[in-house]
Amino acid sequence: MSATLYQLQRDHIQALNHAYQARMAAHNLDSLAIYSGHANNHFADDHATSFQSYGHFIHWVGMADVQHSWLVIQPHQRPQLYLYAPADFWHLPTQLPEEPWVAEFDVHLCSDKITPPLTGRAAVIGDLKELANTTPLANVATLHPEGLVRELDELRMVKSAYEVACLREANRLAIAGHQAANAAFIGASAELDVQLAYLGASRQRESDVPYQNIIGLNEHAGVLHYQRYDLSAPKRRYSLLVDAGRRFRGYCADITRTYAGPDAPSEFGELISAMHGLKDELITQIVPGIEFLTLHEQMHRGLADILVSHGLYQGSAESAVETGVTRAFCPHGLGHSLGIQVHDVAGLRQPDGSPSPAPDTHPALRLTRTLQAGMVITIEPGLYFIPMLLAPLRKKPHPIDWTLVDRLAVCGGIRIEDNILVTEGGPENLTL
C-alpha cells in the first residue's frame, strides 16, 4: 500500500468521524455501535456460508471479512474498535494489518464475543437479527433506527478520494482476471476452466469474490445471472460472457465483457462492437445533474438504433422503443451505484431518504438518482436473445427478422459493463 493511499485512508476515517458526529448530534445520540455481522452455518452443519461484513462497518475499517466485532462511535472521542480475535487452532483469528490507519482507532482485542459498552442515549446498527440475543442491547439502545441508517446510506453515495482509489485498484485486479478469462476461452476451455483462470489472474479465492461470477458460454450468456459452470467445453464455441469482479479493501469492481467465438455468426461480432460503441457513447453523457433514468432511456434509444442498423428490426427505431421491443431484448437496467456493495445502498432513494422507486416501465432499474460528482456507477447496456422474453413478440406483427434472431440465439446475448466516476470535469472510466 502506497504512502499516498495510507494518507487518503486516514483522511477518509477522519472525515467519517466528523460526519458521524454531526449525524449523532442531530439524532441526540451519545453512542453508536456498528456490528460487523457474522457468517451462519449451513443447516445441520458446522460449515459456514460465505460472508461479508456489514457495509457501514467496512466503510470505516476497510476489511470485508471481520466477524463478531463492534465499532463504537461517541462524541469527541476516538472510534473504539472491539475486534473479536479468540485464541483458536481451528481457524486463523482476525488480525489487523500493521498499517498507519489502525492508529486512528482505539483497538481492543476480544477473546470472547461481547456486548459493546454504550453510554447515554445509544443506537446500534447492523445485521442484528443474526445475533443470538439482542435483549441486552434492546435494554440500553435503539436497534437499527431507520432514519439514521438512511442518512448513513446516503453518506456512502459520494465517494472519498480513498474510496475512489480502492475502486480503481479493484478494477485493475479484475481486468487481469478478464484478460485471463478471454485467453482461456480462446484456448477452448470449459466454463469452470474460465472461472479458475479468472480467479488465478485476479488473485482471489472464490469465497472472496464480491458476487458470484457469471461465466456463460453460448446460450448461457443469455441467462442474466447464470449460476453454474459446465465442466466440459462445448463442441461449438459461439460466445462467452464474463461478468466478474474483485474487492480491494472492501470496495468492489463489477466488470462485464462479451466475446465472439470462432463458430459465431459474423453478425454477432458486429453487434458486440456496436454495444461497445453504445456503452462508450452513454459514458460521454455522464455529468453532474443528469438523471440516471435519462441515461437509461438513452440506452434504449441507442439499442433501437442498433437493432435497426443491423437488420434485427425492420421498422423505425422510435417504434422499437414505443412498442417495448427494446425491453424484450434488454430487460435489465442500465446500471447501479457501486461501492462497498456491488449494488450499493441508496440508489432508489432521494438525498432526503424518501423513496424513489423504479418506474413501472423499467421495473428492474436499480438507480433512479440525479448524478452528482463523486458518485461511482456502472454502465452496462445489454442485448440478449432470451426465448421467454421474445416469445410474446412472435405473436404480434412486429417487423423483426426472426430468421436472424434464431441464428444469433445460440450466442445467448451481449453485456458490456464499465465502472464510472462522476466528476465535475466529465466521466472518469475506472475500468480503462
UniProtKB/TrEMBL annotation:
Top-rank EC class of the record's enzyme: hydrolase
Reaction catalyzed: Xaa-L-Pro dipeptide + H2O = an L-alpha-amino acid + L-proline
Required co-factors: Mn(2+)
Domain Peptidase M24: 166-424
UniProt keyword terms in alphabetical order: Dipeptidase, Hydrolase, Manganese, Metal-binding, Metalloprotease, Protease
Residues that hold Mn(2+) 2 according to the record: D243, D254, E417
InterPro entries the UniProt entry points to: Creatin/AminoP/Spt16_N, Creatinase/aminopeptidase-like, PepQ_N, Pept_M24, Peptidase_M24B_aminopep-P_CS, X-Pro_dipept-like, X_Pro_dipept
EC number: 3.4.13.9
Record note on cofactor: Binds 2 manganese ions per subunit.
Binding site for Mn(2+) 1: D254, H336, E380, E417
A GO molecular-function descriptor: proline dipeptidase activity
UniProt keyword annotation of Cell membrane present: no
Function field: Splits dipeptides with a prolyl residue in the C-terminal position.
Protein family: Belongs to the peptidase M24B family. Bacterial-type prolidase subfamily.
Protein name: Xaa-Pro dipeptidase
Source organism per UniProt: Vreelandella piezotolerans
